[in-house]
Amino acid sequence: MKKGLLIILSGPSGVGKGTVREKLFEDATLNLAYSISMTTRSPRPGEKNGREYFFVTKEEFEKKIEEGGLLEHAQFVGNYYGTPKAYVDQLLSEGKNVLLEIEVQGALQVMDKAPDALTIFLVPPTMEELEKRIRGRRTEEENIVQERLNKAAKEIATKDNYKHVVVNNTVEQAASEIAEIIKENIAQH
Ligand SMILES: Nc1ncnc2c1ncn2[C@@H]1O[C@H](COP(=O)(O)OP(=O)(O)OP(=O)(O)O)[C@@H](O)[C@H]1O
Ligand SMILES: Nc1nc2c(ncn2[C@@H]2O[C@H](COP(=O)(O)O)[C@@H](O)[C@H]2O)c(=O)[nH]1
């Protein structure tokens, strides 16, 4: 069976990666699978272990790094985040197009290891809109919101490392542009 396409969706916290990803997954023709990450951050209300993330302790995460079980990992605003490698390999070998929704340090690691990966960076229409979105989500304390916003400009400055940059004006427009990019890449894969 033909291996699936590895897809990285990156962008600053609050830009709308998760929201756009959910829209993309409504299109079954894209044959997408989501890579569930591992993190040491605490679950938000409504988040379930094994669905949004595998929520683990710092010790468990560091053991996974030592075992070589992560495709990439990074520290982001005080917590570890990483992509379990075996699951991604399994999905790719089953022919699934695997979407990694990850921050920029991890994305750069995957680009080194898998230069053929399709890489997409999502940007906000304006920095004011980014702030409005992250605050509007009401999931983080003020100090964490501030730290995430402080990182955003530096993260956006890495966007030229990605093969595609998409502005998230509306969820429908961003998802539709990304779906077209994925379809073109599937055809050439
Ligand atoms: N195009 C859009 N227009 C208006 N609001 C949006 C848009 N896209 C996403 N949002 C809203 O912005 C907030 C942040 O979106 P989301 O949680 O998807 O961001 P994210 O990039 O996945 O964040 P993180 O990296 O922190 O996980 C949510 O409340 C979401 O409903
Ligand atoms: N490098 C990685 N970054 C990841 C991974 N999973 C998620 N993320 C990114 O972390 C930030 C914060 O996420 P949040 O859920 O706490 O808001 C965000 O940019 C995610 O996309 C991963 O496995 N590796």
Automatic annotation (TrEMBL):
It is found in: Cytoplasm. Residues 4-183 form the Guanylate kinase-like domain. The keyword Kinase applies. One of its GO terms (cellular component) is cytosol. This is Guanylate kinase. The gene is gmk. It comes from Kandleria vitulina DSM 20405. PANTHER family: GUANYLATE KINASE, GUANYLATE KINASE-RELATED. Pfam families: Guanylate_kin. SUPFAM superfamilies: P-loop containing nucleoside triphosphate hydrolases (SSF52540). ATP binds at G11, P12, S13, G14, V15, G16, K17, G18. It comes from the Bacteria. Keywords: ATP-binding, Cytoplasm, Kinase, Nucleotide-binding, Transferase. Coiled coil: none annotated. Essential for recycling GMP and indirectly, cGMP. It catalyses: GMP + ATP = GDP + ADP. Its EC number is 2.7.4.8.
